[in-house]
Amino acid sequence: MARIKLAYCPTRRDVFSREEAMKFNEEIRRQMDKFPVDIVDLEGINEEKLLYRDEDIPAVIDRFMAEKVDAIFVPHCNFGSENRVAQVAKALRVPLLLWGPRDDFPDKDGLRSRDSQCGMFATGKVLRRHNIPFTYLTNSWIGSEEFFSGMEKFIRTVSVVKAIKNLNILQISTRPEPFCSVICNENELIEKFGVHLYPITLNDLVVKMKKVQEENSDDLQNTVRRIKEIGTDESEDKILKVASLKVAMKELAKQYHCRAVAIQCWTSLQDIADIMPCCANALLTDEGVPVVCETDIHGAISAIMMQAATMEESTPFFADVTVRHPENDNAELLWHCGNFPYSLVKDKKNAKIGNSRYHNNTYGICEWELKPGELTIARFDGDHGKYSLLIGEAHTTDGPKNVGSYVWIEVDNWAKWEHKIVEGPYIHHVSGAYGKYAEILFEACKYIPELEPDPLLPREEIEARWR
Question: Mean pLDDT throughout 202-210?
Fold first, then answer.
């Protein structure tokens, strides 16, 4: 993933201390070097490196636009200049973080030097007047836990927003005939979200696989070696086919500048190539290119958003919401034929790549259970021109052994989840990731026009996490 490019736009107002504002700006700027972002600041715009006068607004906007910043951070080093902030923000139209450092004691005469909090009340009002969405980080001390936690969450939020902008998805063939549930409106995806599909046929894929085998690249050899390291009893020919599928999808995704792949994984592929794609999907997902099943384009978008929320600290997995736990009313099986990434395996000693008993014993599925931990579950979907993002959190739990790849999850109220998925606009496909990112995905929807957050957590809890 490309690093976030953050516009650093500190502001002050003349009536309060210029010297204090400059001092606080220097300290805040030093703290920003601790975050994994590329900073574009106001160096050279004026001697103070602060937004405080009208004549600097065009230069500030020009610099940030030329640098193609992904977001803007507006620390109020004293009261700040709310109208100037709004003018810059309106021109950029990117996620905005509003924050200011806590105010110190008044001096011995009772005079206050900054009034940063008061200024943010004013800026919030003006931003709303201009219909500019923004994220507010609670007024806190520089370098405090609240500051670092809030900044990290904002960076993850920007990562999600950036990931879905001008997103390219490699579509390998049409959906399987029975899967009416994964129908998508390609035109709406382009118009509303800038999501572009690059369709190819299964024949194109097989031709690419043969070329990959002929070239016998280091990537192909390493993939064959990786499959054997994980564990398999299959012939060299079948292993080579699965490895060449993974390399072929990777090269095609790179060719079309695609961040994710949606593949028609059955049944035509088995007729043409005599393999299941699940292992190839898992391996490529672990390399940072999520691959989803049954040509589920909305599922691919879900996976990319989840990957961005984790900042690639954990690999997302694509799952069927399948059956209720036979004994635990609030537990559910997340399963798929065998596409869950190996990096998430619970027991690597007993993990193996085998044959699908659901698809004529065809080779190429991953057989393993995922590790224990906290999970975030999400689904981008829509119908009748309206789109929303299902957001939930769960933890893993014990359950019966399954074939393929699987994990049992437990939630606070499964009946609520079940009704939400059935009543829509969702289906049985979700993207999951280890960690708790509900507030990140929720906040990201603020900056993605025509996408409504649909949390299974109380909104009050999500808002409280930001506070």
Answer: 97
Q: Are residues 12 and 112 in the same domain?
A: yes
Mean pLDDT (the chain, rounded) = 96
> Does the global pTM surpass 0.90?
yes
Domain of 108: which CATH number? 3.40.50.10940
Output the pLDDT for position 91.
Answer: 98
Rounded Cα distance, 262 and 355, in Å: 22
Closest by CA position to 163, among listed 450, 466, 448, 426 = 448
* Selection from 404, 390, 111 nearest residue 279 by Cα: 404
- Strands 168-172 vs 386-397: parallel, antiparallel or unpaired: unpaired
pLDDT computed for residue 2 by the predictor: 78
Q: Whose CA is closest to 363, among 219, 220, 232?
A: 232
The number of folded domains in the chain is 2
398 and 459 housed in the same domain: yes
Band of residue 104 on the pLDDT scale cut at 50, 70, 90: confident
- Hey, is 102 helix, strand or coil? coil
Q: Count Cβ atoms below 10 Å from residue 95 Cβ, excluding itself.
A: 28
Mark whether 173 and 147 lie in a shared domain: no
Q: Can you tell me the distance from the alpha carbon of 324 to that of 330, in angstroms, rounded to the nearest whole number?
A: 8
Pairing status of strand 374-383 against strand 386-397: antiparallel
What is the SS3 assignment for 345? strand
- pLDDT of 141 higher than 80: yes
The verdict on 250 and 129 lying in the same domain is: no
Tokens of 371: 């590790």
Same domain for 206 and 233? yes
The predicted pLDDT at position 110 comes to: 72
Instruction: Evaluate whether 238 touches 363 at the Cβ level (below 8 Å).
Output: yes
Closest CA to 363 of 279, 247, 267: 279
pLDDT tens digits, one per residue of 221-260: 999 999 999 999 999 999 999 999 999 999 999 999 999 9
Mean pLDDT of 64-88: 97
Q: Looking at the structure, do residues 339 and 414 belong to the same domain, yes or no?
A: yes
Strands (E), 303-421: 317-324, 331-336, 352-356, 362-369, 374-383, 386-397, 405-410
- Helices and strands (H, E) in the chain, number of each type: 15, 18
CATH number at residue 233: 3.20.14
Among residues 129, 145, 164, the one where a domain terminates is 164
- Domain span at residue 227 reads 168-466
Contact indicator for 60, 88 with CB cutoff of 8 Å? yes
